[in-house]
Amino acid sequence: MVQPPCQNACPVHQDARGYLAAVATGDFDRAAEIVLETNPLPFVCATICAHPCEEKCRRGQADQPLSIRALKRVAMEQGRPGAVPAPTPSHPEKVAVIGAGPAGLTAGHDLARMGYPVTIFEREAMPGGAMAYFVPLYRLPRELVKRDIEAIRALGVDIQTDKALGRDITLEQLKHQGFRAVVLSLGLPLSRKLRIPGEEGEGVLLALPFLRAVNLEGHRLPPGKKVIVIGGGNVAVDAARSALRAGAKTVIMVCLEAAHEMPASPWEIAEAQEEGIEINCSWGPKEIIRRNGKVAVINCMAVKAVFDEHGRFNPSFYEDRCTLMEGDIIILAIGQAPDIGMLPKLGIPLNDRGQLVFDPQTMATGREGVFACGETVLGPGSAVRAMAHGRRAALAVDAYLRGDKFTFQEPSALGALAPEVVEDIERVERHPLPLSEGGRRITSFELVDLGYSPQVGAREGRRCLNCGNGAELREEKCVACLTCVRVCPYGVPVVRAAGKVDIRVDQCQACGICVSECPAGAIAFRMPGVEDIPRRVRAAMKGGRKETVFFCSYDTVFLQGADTSGMVPVPCLGKIDVRHLLQAAELGAERITLIGCADADCPYQRTLRWAQCRVETANRLLQGAGLGEGVVRLLQLAPQEFAHLSEFLAPSAKEAA
Ligand SMILES: Cc1cc2nc3c(=O)[nH]c(=O)nc-3n(C[C@H](O)[C@H](O)[C@H](O)COP(=O)(O)OP(=O)(O)OC[C@H]3O[C@@H](n4cnc5c(N)ncnc54)[C@H](O)[C@@H]3O)c2cc1C
Ligand code: SF4
Ligand code: SF4
After folding, report:
1. Is the CB of residue 506 less than 8 Å from the CB of residue 464?
2. Residue-wise DSSP of 239-284
3. Does any ligand 3 atom lie closer than 6 A to the CB of residue 493?
4. Could you say which of 161, 272, 329, 608 has the lowest number of CB atoms within 10 Å?
5. Which of 251, 326, 315, 327 is closest to 283 using CA atoms?
6. Is residue 464 lining ligand 2, measured as CB closer than 6 Å?
7. How far is CA 652 from CA 352, 649, 656, in A?
8. pTM score, whole prediction
9. Does residue 513's CB lie within 6 angstroms of at least one atom of ligand 3?
């Protein structure tokens, strides 16, 4: 299946297009349901997902990508999805998952949904892995982690905490208890050290234990401390920002990479700098100099190159170009490692580099019936990548238990937009995310990202180009009249050899104009809510109503609870057909009102002009049939006017008279 680029770039292939459309049309319940279909950690992802989907979003070709992660948060905060029924156990084979981080939780969730009895064994007192212990509270409030985990438990997944493989349980015991397959998802719980002179002793901290102490125990630094964080990744930025909130006087970061090479996400770096953290790029620590046993200075060498000629991480330095940086506390955030030294004793082999023997195709380890997933085998990355790996492990376990060969194929993505189509796309700036103010936020661990309001979320959602979800030619009906070629504002339909029309599904902007204009009815529309307009007109006219109102559903959120019974929402009035208007009249409507957005608010080209043409055509036909003059009217309202819709719908005194 060909997916829109956002969905394809998402490691768990979330239907971003689907939930964005639902948010844009104010249907938050449906949006949350779509998120839940494929995401076992929806609140966590809505808050801290690294959102690789946004990097591939095709709107980035025209202006800026959709703010997809933030819109998932709107969906989860505003939506009240229907309860997901607990799956019926359909397989007797018990599966054990070791480690309750994103990978293990996803494997457990998916196996439970497939009907397997699943137990997750977690060595810590709380499930959640790095999300529960290390991610700072100002980015991820823990009640969100708990909400996601409760929903997984509600599927019937048994999560047992304080149970470590190798300490409290062995594989033999699990086998004895009837577990037929085991999934290892042990993460990377250890911080790496630098191995330079002066490193051992007071004042040098490791990032993960430091973050854990700050998050869980409320650890604070003694007043007046100057902190130096070594590292240029996200964990380093988290350690630096946490140190600031934990009371450091100043915090500087030192990393090997040049600014453009830093592995930390650009938005994390920007937020850290906003908070006053200074970043020193292209320096590598040489030694820590102590005075009276206490950390005083770190001596750093200038970096020649971080990567070698094969692109491998292999830093080289100018040993004679050094600088001294003063500090009282040094936090090492230079990488994480797995804690798997005990595995060989359990009969699970490691290779000669001390890594788990693992086949990335089959997800199998070197021991029969034992599988692995997540960062233990992938190395550091994002939560959603670990989740996707957990999903893949669940599929591998299912194939193993069913005696099937495990195969896995990633779906493909729609290609880029053609430059001439990009040129015609209406530019609409991405809505900036509201953040708490830099100076104030460093005094607390409150969530920095304040999230969109439902109204701003709906506005942002309508920027989505609905890639691959628009017009589709029904070739058998096409009479090659070329109307679609003439009316499409984006030049999507093209004439191929022998006069054949090709509506390029991958380029379509889903404005809907051609669908209504095509005299042969040869164009189908993929986006939900369009093909069933006639059914909704019938429903709206039930009970002998005398007025039909069609309104742009992109403005639903501004209606603020107005009574919309008897009204027909349409995702942009460009999709209204003269036939829909005549149908309403035929069913008894004496007045038909189309409510669209003010011109400047419409993300499409020329849709209101076409809607006006259809109003005029319908009025002409209705007048010709003796059904009255000016039966159909088009109103254009600004968002704030939608809140007072009834005033615009009420017949004027003159009309009533
Ligand atoms: C500080 C920090 C910030 C991060 N921020 C983000 C972010 O903003 N966005 C993002 O997408 N990703 C972020 N990540 C990365 C993300 O947290 C990881 O990619 C993800 O947690 C990896 O999932 P996992 O399940 O493989 O491992 P983990 O989350 O590490 O889970 C492994 C689990 O296995 C348990 N375990 C280990 N050994 C045993 C044993 N012997 N027996 C039983 N249980 C065991 C551990 O206790 C742990 O609970 C961050 C990571 C860190 C450290
Ligand atoms: S414009 Fe919409 S459908 Fe297209 S890639 Fe971006 S989010 Fe996905
Ligand atoms: S739906 Fe709009 S963008 Fe797509 S082909 Fe038809 S007229 Fe062009």
Report:
1. no
2. HHHHHHHTT-SEEEEE-SS-GGG--S-HHHHHHHHHTT-EEE-SEE
3. yes
4. 161
5. 315
6. yes
7. 85, 9, 6
8. 0.94
9. yes
Contacts of 488 (CB under 8 A, 6+ apart): 513, 514
Tokens of 513: 């104009």
Query: 277: which 2 tokens?
Result: 């953290």
Q: How many angstroms separate the CA atoms of 182 and 108, rounded?
A: 11
Whole-number mean pLDDT of the chain? 94
Quote the tokens at residue 31. 């949006």
Comparing 50-54, 526-530, 612-616, which segment has the lowest mean pLDDT? 526-530
CA–centroid distance, 506 to ligand 2, in Å, is 11
Question: Is 465 touching ligand 3 by the criterion CB < 6 Å?
Answer: no
- Which residues form ligand 1's pocket by a CB distance below 6 Å? 48-50, 98-104, 121-124, 129-131, 134-135, 164-166, 185-189, 211, 234-235, 238, 339, 374-375, 381-384, 386
Three-state SS at 168: coil
Q: Report residue 559 as tokens.
A: 């209606």
Cα separation, 231 vs 452, in Å, equals 32
- The model's confidence at residue 651, banded by pLDDT at 50, 70 and 90, is low
Strands 501-503 and 523-525: unpaired
Check residue 657 and give its pLDDT: 41
d(CA 455, CA 24): 9
Cross-sheet strand order for the sheet of 278-280? 204-206, 329-332, 226-230, 250-254, 278-280
Mutation to probe ligand 3, out of 513, 608, 613 (largest number of atoms < 8 A from CB): 513
In short, whether 465's Cβ falls inside 6 Å of ligand 2 is yes
Q: Return d(Cα 526, Cα 7) in angstroms, integer.
A: 16
Q: In whole angstroms, what is the distance from residue 113 CA to residue 155 CA? A: 7
Q: Where are the beta strands (DSSP E) in 4-101?
A: 94-98
**DSSP-assigned letter for residue 75:** H
Matching residue, tokens 């069609």: 550
The residue whose CA is least distant from atom 35 of ligand 1 is 99
3-state secondary structure 52-73: HHHHHCHHHHCCCCCCHHHHHH
Tens digits of residue pLDDT in 369-416: 999 999 999 999 999 999 999 999 999 999 999 999 999 999 999 999
Q: How many whole angstroms from 468 Cα to the centroid of ligand 2?
A: 9
Ligand 1 site-directed mutation target among 208, 382, 385, 391, most atoms within 8 Å of CB: 382
Closest ligand 1 atom, CA of 376? 26
Ligand at minimal distance from the CA of 417 is 2
Give 344-349 contacts, CB < 8 A, sequence gap 24+.
Answer: 345/166, 346/165, 346/166, 346/170, 346/171, 347/171, 348/171, 348/184
Nearest CA to 194 out of 339, 332, 313 is that of: 332
